[in-house]
Amino acid sequence: DTAVSQTPKYLVTQMGNDKSIKCEQNLGHDTMYWYKQDSKKFLKIMFSYNNKELIINETVPNRFSPKSPDKAHLNLHINSLELGDSAVYFCASSPSRLVNTEAFFGQGTRLTVV
Amino acid sequence: AQKITQTQPGMFVQEKEAVTLDCTYDTSDPSYGLFWYKQPSSGEMIFLIYQGSYDQQNATEGRYSLNFQKARKSANLVISASQLGDSAMYFCAMREFPQGGSEKLVFGKGTKLTVNP
After folding, report:
1. Rounded distance, CA B49 to CA A93, Å?
2. Is the pLDDT confidence value at A73 over 70?
3. Each residue's pLDDT tens digit, A81-106
4. Which residues pair with A87 in a beta bridge?
5. Are strands A87-94 and A109-113 parallel, antiparallel or unpaired?
Protein backbone atom coordinates (compact mmCIF):
# COMPACT_ATOMS: atom_id res chain seq x y z
CA ASP A 1 0.00 0.00 0.00
CA THR A 2 1.40 3.36 -1.01
CA ALA A 3 1.61 5.73 1.95
CA VAL A 4 1.82 9.00 -0.02
CA SER A 5 0.73 8.87 -3.62
CA GLN A 6 0.95 11.59 -6.23
CA THR A 7 -0.63 11.68 -9.64
CA PRO A 8 0.45 12.04 -12.32
CA LYS A 9 4.07 10.92 -12.16
CA TYR A 10 4.91 12.76 -15.37
CA LEU A 11 3.22 15.82 -16.78
CA VAL A 12 4.15 17.54 -20.02
CA THR A 13 2.17 20.61 -20.95
CA GLN A 14 2.36 23.82 -22.92
CA MET A 15 2.99 27.28 -21.55
CA GLY A 16 -0.13 29.05 -20.46
CA ASN A 17 -2.06 25.92 -19.56
CA ASP A 18 -3.57 25.19 -16.15
CA LYS A 19 -2.76 21.87 -14.51
CA SER A 20 -3.26 20.07 -11.21
CA ILE A 21 -1.22 17.55 -9.29
CA LYS A 22 -3.02 15.38 -6.77
CA CYS A 23 -1.64 14.03 -3.52
CA GLU A 24 -3.18 11.60 -1.10
CA GLN A 25 -1.81 10.04 2.08
CA ASN A 26 -3.28 7.07 3.92
CA LEU A 27 -1.16 7.45 7.04
CA GLY A 28 -3.60 9.50 9.06
CA HIS A 29 -1.12 12.39 9.22
CA ASP A 30 -2.26 15.90 10.01
CA THR A 31 0.42 17.81 8.13
CA MET A 32 1.06 17.80 4.40
CA TYR A 33 3.64 19.67 2.34
CA TRP A 34 4.46 20.58 -1.22
CA TYR A 35 8.10 20.90 -2.24
CA LYS A 36 9.63 21.95 -5.54
CA GLN A 37 12.91 20.36 -6.61
CA ASP A 38 14.68 22.33 -9.30
CA SER A 39 17.25 21.17 -11.83
CA LYS A 40 20.00 21.70 -9.25
CA LYS A 41 18.20 19.25 -6.94
CA PHE A 42 17.38 21.95 -4.37
CA LEU A 43 14.24 21.05 -2.42
CA LYS A 44 12.30 24.19 -1.59
CA ILE A 45 9.21 24.14 0.57
CA MET A 46 6.21 25.75 -1.06
CA PHE A 47 3.24 25.08 1.18
CA SER A 48 2.36 23.33 4.38
CA TYR A 49 -1.12 22.40 5.58
CA ASN A 50 -2.18 21.22 8.98
CA ASN A 51 -5.67 19.71 9.28
CA LYS A 52 -6.72 21.41 6.05
CA GLU A 53 -5.44 24.78 7.23
CA LEU A 54 -2.66 26.57 5.39
CA ILE A 55 0.22 27.19 7.81
CA ILE A 56 3.14 27.92 5.50
CA ASN A 57 3.05 29.78 2.24
CA GLU A 58 6.56 30.51 1.08
CA THR A 59 7.29 33.07 -1.59
CA VAL A 60 5.46 31.29 -4.34
CA PRO A 61 3.68 32.99 -7.27
CA ASN A 62 -0.04 33.18 -6.72
CA ARG A 63 -0.45 31.10 -9.87
CA PHE A 64 0.16 28.20 -7.48
CA SER A 65 -2.85 27.38 -5.35
CA PRO A 66 -2.97 24.45 -2.95
CA LYS A 67 -6.30 22.92 -2.07
CA SER A 68 -6.98 20.56 0.80
CA PRO A 69 -10.49 19.08 0.65
CA ASP A 70 -9.70 16.92 3.68
CA LYS A 71 -6.64 16.17 5.74
CA ALA A 72 -5.72 13.16 3.60
CA HIS A 73 -5.49 15.20 0.41
CA LEU A 74 -3.45 18.18 -0.67
CA ASN A 75 -3.69 19.06 -4.34
CA LEU A 76 -1.62 21.62 -6.17
CA HIS A 77 -3.18 23.67 -8.93
CA ILE A 78 -1.00 25.76 -11.21
CA ASN A 79 -2.43 28.43 -13.50
CA SER A 80 -0.81 29.91 -16.58
CA LEU A 81 2.17 27.60 -16.54
CA GLU A 82 5.57 29.07 -17.36
CA LEU A 83 8.80 27.47 -18.54
CA GLY A 84 10.37 28.11 -15.12
CA ASP A 85 7.75 25.95 -13.47
CA SER A 86 9.43 22.87 -14.93
CA ALA A 87 10.65 20.87 -11.95
CA VAL A 88 9.88 17.83 -9.85
CA TYR A 89 7.14 18.48 -7.30
CA PHE A 90 7.04 16.38 -4.15
CA CYS A 91 4.18 15.94 -1.78
CA ALA A 92 4.98 14.85 1.78
CA SER A 93 3.13 14.20 5.00
CA SER A 94 3.98 13.89 8.68
CA PRO A 95 2.19 13.73 12.01
CA SER A 96 1.83 17.29 13.18
CA ARG A 97 3.54 19.04 16.05
CA LEU A 98 5.90 16.18 16.64
CA VAL A 99 9.53 16.90 15.96
CA ASN A 100 10.75 13.35 16.18
CA THR A 101 9.03 11.90 13.16
CA GLU A 102 10.13 11.82 9.59
CA ALA A 103 8.14 13.13 6.68
CA PHE A 104 6.98 10.56 4.17
CA PHE A 105 7.34 11.58 0.55
CA GLY A 106 5.40 10.76 -2.56
CA GLN A 107 7.27 9.56 -5.61
CA GLY A 108 7.31 13.02 -7.16
CA THR A 109 5.70 14.54 -10.24
CA ARG A 110 8.02 15.60 -13.02
CA LEU A 111 6.45 18.64 -14.66
CA THR A 112 7.80 19.77 -18.01
CA VAL A 113 6.48 22.97 -19.52
CA VAL A 114 7.19 23.38 -23.22
CA ALA B 1 20.30 32.88 5.75
CA GLN B 2 20.70 29.20 5.04
CA LYS B 3 19.09 27.05 7.68
CA ILE B 4 20.82 23.89 6.53
CA THR B 5 24.26 23.91 4.93
CA GLN B 6 25.80 21.00 3.11
CA THR B 7 29.21 22.14 1.95
CA GLN B 8 30.09 19.11 -0.18
CA PRO B 9 28.35 19.20 -3.55
CA GLY B 10 29.95 15.85 -4.40
CA MET B 11 31.81 13.09 -2.59
CA PHE B 12 33.59 9.97 -3.78
CA VAL B 13 34.31 6.85 -1.74
CA GLN B 14 35.67 3.41 -2.44
CA GLU B 15 33.38 0.48 -1.93
CA LYS B 16 33.56 -0.95 1.61
CA GLU B 17 35.06 2.23 3.03
CA ALA B 18 33.33 4.67 5.36
CA VAL B 19 32.31 8.17 4.32
CA THR B 20 31.11 11.24 6.21
CA LEU B 21 28.66 13.71 4.70
CA ASP B 22 28.67 17.09 6.38
CA CYS B 23 25.68 19.07 7.56
CA THR B 24 25.47 22.19 9.68
CA TYR B 25 22.29 23.90 10.75
CA ASP B 26 21.11 27.18 12.12
CA THR B 27 18.31 27.55 14.61
CA SER B 28 17.58 29.39 17.83
CA ASP B 29 14.84 27.00 18.88
CA PRO B 30 15.67 24.54 21.68
CA SER B 31 13.49 21.84 20.16
CA TYR B 32 14.19 20.61 16.66
CA GLY B 33 14.77 17.45 14.70
CA LEU B 34 17.43 16.59 12.17
CA PHE B 35 16.92 14.13 9.34
CA TRP B 36 18.84 12.59 6.51
CA TYR B 37 17.21 11.48 3.29
CA LYS B 38 18.61 9.58 0.34
CA GLN B 39 17.49 10.26 -3.21
CA PRO B 40 18.70 7.67 -5.73
CA SER B 41 18.63 8.32 -9.46
CA SER B 42 15.11 6.90 -9.57
CA GLY B 43 14.00 10.05 -7.74
CA GLU B 44 12.20 8.88 -4.63
CA MET B 45 13.02 10.35 -1.23
CA ILE B 46 14.06 7.69 1.28
CA PHE B 47 14.26 8.48 4.99
CA LEU B 48 17.50 7.26 6.56
CA ILE B 49 17.96 8.53 10.09
CA TYR B 50 16.67 10.99 12.66
CA GLN B 51 18.28 12.90 15.56
CA GLY B 52 16.33 14.92 18.09
CA SER B 53 17.80 18.02 19.69
CA TYR B 54 17.37 16.53 23.14
CA ASP B 55 18.76 13.12 22.30
CA GLN B 56 21.84 12.38 24.36
CA GLN B 57 23.19 9.66 22.11
CA ASN B 58 24.01 9.74 18.43
CA ALA B 59 21.41 8.03 16.30
CA THR B 60 22.31 4.84 14.46
CA GLU B 61 20.40 2.84 11.86
CA GLY B 62 22.28 -0.10 10.44
CA ARG B 63 25.22 1.24 8.44
CA TYR B 64 24.09 4.83 9.01
CA SER B 65 25.05 6.87 12.03
CA LEU B 66 24.62 10.52 12.79
CA ASN B 67 27.51 12.39 14.39
CA PHE B 68 25.56 14.99 16.34
CA GLN B 69 27.59 17.86 17.78
CA LYS B 70 25.04 20.22 19.25
CA ALA B 71 27.43 22.97 20.28
CA ARG B 72 28.82 23.12 16.76
CA LYS B 73 25.35 22.74 15.26
CA SER B 74 26.47 19.91 13.07
CA ALA B 75 24.76 16.64 12.19
CA ASN B 76 27.06 14.71 9.91
CA LEU B 77 25.96 11.43 8.36
CA VAL B 78 28.43 8.56 8.51
CA ILE B 79 27.94 5.64 6.15
CA SER B 80 30.07 2.64 7.03
CA ALA B 81 31.11 -0.10 4.61
CA SER B 82 29.89 1.77 1.53
CA GLN B 83 28.07 -0.19 -1.14
CA LEU B 84 27.56 0.60 -4.81
CA GLY B 85 23.87 1.08 -4.09
CA ASP B 86 24.70 3.95 -1.76
CA SER B 87 25.46 6.15 -4.79
CA ALA B 88 22.78 8.83 -4.60
CA MET B 89 21.99 12.39 -3.51
CA TYR B 90 21.86 12.82 0.25
CA PHE B 91 19.86 15.58 1.88
CA CYS B 92 20.10 16.88 5.40
CA ALA B 93 16.90 18.42 6.78
CA MET B 94 15.71 20.14 9.92
CA ARG B 95 12.28 20.37 11.43
CA GLU B 96 11.74 23.23 13.83
CA PHE B 97 8.98 25.09 15.56
CA PRO B 98 9.92 28.78 15.60
CA GLN B 99 8.31 30.79 18.38
CA GLY B 100 5.32 32.58 17.00
CA GLY B 101 5.87 30.91 13.65
CA SER B 102 4.87 27.78 11.85
CA GLU B 103 6.48 24.40 11.88
CA LYS B 104 8.87 23.89 8.99
CA LEU B 105 10.83 21.07 7.44
CA VAL B 106 13.68 22.57 5.44
CA PHE B 107 16.37 20.89 3.38
CA GLY B 108 19.99 21.49 2.51
CA LYS B 109 21.17 21.57 -1.08
CA GLY B 110 22.34 18.00 -0.98
CA THR B 111 25.55 16.03 -1.52
CA LYS B 112 25.99 13.68 -4.44
CA LEU B 113 27.77 10.55 -3.25
CA THR B 114 29.47 8.25 -5.73
CA VAL B 115 30.71 4.87 -4.57
CA ASN B 116 33.50 3.49 -6.73
CA PRO B 117 34.05 -0.26 -7.15
Report:
1. 17
2. yes
3. 999 999 999 999 988 655 567 889 99
4. A111
5. antiparallel
Cβ distance A100 to B33 less than 8 Å, yes or no, reads: yes
Q: Strand (E) positions, B1-117?
A: 4-5, 10-14, 19-21, 24-25, 32-39, 46-52, 60-61, 64-69, 74-79, 88-96, 104-107, 111-116
d(CA A103, CA B36): 11
Provide the pLDDT for residue A56. Answer: 75
| Nearest-Cα residue of chain A relative to residue B88 | A41
| DSSP structural state of residue B85 | G
Which H or E run contains A91?
Answer: strand A87-94
Contact residues, B window 47-76, toward A, CB-based 8 Å cutoff: 47, 50, 52-53
* Cross-chain Cβ contact B43/A45 below 8 Å: no
Angle at A58 between CA A57 and CA A62, to 5 degrees: 70
